Structures are given as C-alpha cells and as structure tokens.
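User: Just a sanity check before I run the rest of the batch. Below are the structure tokens for the first item. I only need the designed sequence back.
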C-alpha cells in the first residue's frame, strides 16, 4: 500500500521544460548539458531493481539508471500523466534478513519538510512487495561530479561560497525540524534543472538522519557512545571518536566540503584508515603545520574566518547560522545567489583563480 501522494501544482510548473538533450532528459535552454543526470550502464551480472521501460505503479515509465549506491538505486522515469521526468529511488525492502529502515526514515523526513526551498519535491512514496520507493524531483548531477568536470577540478571562491551559504540555509531548516543530516558531502548536494530553480541548491539523501531534538525543541540527552554514521572523509573529529552527533557536526562536514570544492581535494584524500584521517583533521582543527611546505591548511583560501568559527562551535547548542554565512561574504564578493555559477560560464572564474594560485606558488 502506498503512502499518500504529494503533489504541488505550483512547484511542478517550475519543472516545465522546452528542449531535449541527446540523452532524452528534458531541460530548459540555460542548463548546461554537463550538469544533467546521465544514464549509467547496467552491470551485466547485477539484477536491477527496476526494468527499463517498466511502468512503475502504473504511472512512471522507467528510462534508465542514473545512480547507484550500497543501499539502493535511482532511476530516471517519465510521468505518463504529466509528461515530465522524475527520479525514482528504490531500495530492497529486506536487507540481510532485516527490514530496511533507511528509506522509511527518509520518506518521513521528506514529507515533513515539503515546501522548504532546499528539499527535493516529493511526488509519491511507499512500498511494494519487495521495494521501498520515493518518487521525487529530478535534479542535476551532484556537486562532487560537477567539481570533477571543471578543467582544474576546483570551483571558484564565489561559487563555493554560495554553495556553502545555501547549504547552511538547508541545514538550518532541517535542524529546526529537529533532525541532523549526518552525511553532508558534495555527493549529497545538487541543483534544480528548471528555469526558476537552476540556482537553488538541494540537499539530498536523508537515509542517515537522526532526531536530535524533542518535540518541544530541547536537545535530546546525549549518548556517551554512539555508532559511527557518515562518510569518513567528511565527518568531524567527534564522530571519529564515536561521540553523539549534533547540529555542529553537520556544519563541520560542510567546512570539509567547501575545502574540497575550492582547493580540489582534502589533505586526507589518499588515507583509508579512520584513525589516520582523524589525526590530520585534528591537525587542521588545531591549525598545526601541515606536512610539506604549506604551513596553514587555509592559506590563500579565504576560508580561514569560516573555519575558525566552525571549529569553535559548541556541540550542545545550535550553530549561529547567520554568523556563519557572514564569514562567507569574503568568498561570495558581489555575486548574488541567482547569478551564474561556474558550470554556466565554462568554469572561467575557477580556471583564472587556479592560474593565479599556481603562479603565486612558483
């Protein structure tokens, strides 16, 4: 049985599209092809959760696989009633002999937060005999993939600053609902691909969310020890230590995200062991000398003010969201949130900044 379907006529009008790419994904003319979701090859040995051309729930015709992870798959589909593309996220109902709960939590959180600008629009959700599913707004490829599309594999200061600024708004909304995300990273950030939402960042993947506040807004009692949740590359030192996560840990993950987008990689990129990653993160947090010639992790990045504020946050209270955004003004400069981003201008600004940094380091 399906949960109630959510449809928003006004929001769906924002998805009106007027041109077609070679991959069959409809888009408005101002959206660069490189940020549109791409069909992925099916693994010959794998059993896909949905079949190509299958009409899921008698309405959504599956066109192809556009995403796959350890917990499920994401498909591009066409709404046969409305004639627009959507994303179908599915996961097996039973995993390792147990009822899968990730998507159930995600469904509930998405339904609660509908109407917020940085949350994907939810069209339907529920379950079948074998699958849990969410049908939602089709979005761009994720920010991590966009960064890798840049010739210098970096984003400019102004684009990075605006991404961080919008993500703080997204986290503020989520925290007000009493949830923490626990997996903030570039792979969980996208942009809209409609005329009116192409400059709006959308925070994705609520499979690891946790309620950290009571219904009255008070913080829940902290557990002395908590299981590891998140992605090693982006979690805070506290999470490495298996301490209870709070809203500040989401912000620390956002700082690491910003560093990677603007610098091109994190200092611990090549490390696999959690204890080694934690050690480098502690060095960054304590502003210790980095191995090599760079004596400051944030040298020349203009992230230093933001980083100092982030690392000073008290995990027992919510972060000062507006102050955090104020620290990003030096990055954003005179750009507005709806001004073109790097991928709309062939990454020219990112390339120029990279060339300047390369010349200054010689």
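Assistant: Here's the designed sequence for the first item:
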């Amino acid at each position: 049985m399906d949960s109630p379907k959510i449809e928003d006529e006004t929001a769906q009008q924002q998805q009106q599209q007027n041109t077609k790419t070679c991959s069959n994904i409809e888009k408005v003319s101002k959206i660069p092809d490189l940020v549109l979701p791409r069909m992925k090859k099916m693994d010959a040995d794998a059993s896909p959760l949905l079949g190509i051309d299958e009409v899921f729930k008698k309405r959504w015709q599956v066109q192809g696989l556009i995403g796959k992870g350890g917990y499920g798959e994401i498909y591009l589909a066409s709404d046969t009633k409305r004639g627009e593309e959507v994303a179908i996220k599915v996961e097996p109902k039973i995993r390792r002999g147990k009822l899968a709960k990730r998507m159930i939590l995600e469904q509930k959180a998405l339904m609660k937060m509908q109407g917020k600008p940085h949350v994907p629009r939810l069209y339907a959700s529920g379950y079948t005999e074998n699958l849990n599913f969410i049908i939602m707004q089709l979005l761009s490829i994720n920010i991590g993939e966009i960064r890798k599309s840049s010739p210098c594999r970096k984003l400019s200061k102004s684009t990075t600053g605006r991404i961080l600024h919008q993500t703080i708004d997204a986290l503020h909304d989520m925290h007000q609902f009493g949830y923490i995300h626990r997996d903030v990273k570039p792979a969980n950030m996208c942009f809209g691909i409609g005329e009116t939402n192409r400059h709006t960042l959308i925070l994705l993947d609520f499979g690891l969310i946790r309620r950290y506040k009571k219904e009255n807004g008070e913080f829940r009692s902290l557990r002395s020890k908590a299981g590891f949740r998140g992605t090693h590359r982006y979690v805070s030192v506290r999470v490495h230590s298996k301490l209870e996560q709070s809203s500040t840990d989401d912000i620390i993950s956002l700082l690491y995200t910003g560093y990677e987008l603007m610098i091109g990689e994190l200092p611990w990129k090549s490390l696999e062991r959690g204890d080694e990653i934690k050690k480098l993160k502690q060095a960054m947090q304590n502003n210790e000398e980095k191995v090599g010639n760079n004596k400051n992790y944030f040298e020349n990045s203009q992230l230093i003010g933001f980083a100092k504020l982030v690392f000073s946050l008290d995990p027992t209270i919510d972060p000062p969201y507006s102050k955090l955004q104020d620290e990003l003004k030096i990055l954003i400069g005179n750009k507005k949130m709806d001004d073109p981003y790097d991928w709309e201008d062939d990454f020219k600004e990112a390339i120029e900044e990279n060339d300047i940094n390369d010349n200054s380091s010689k």
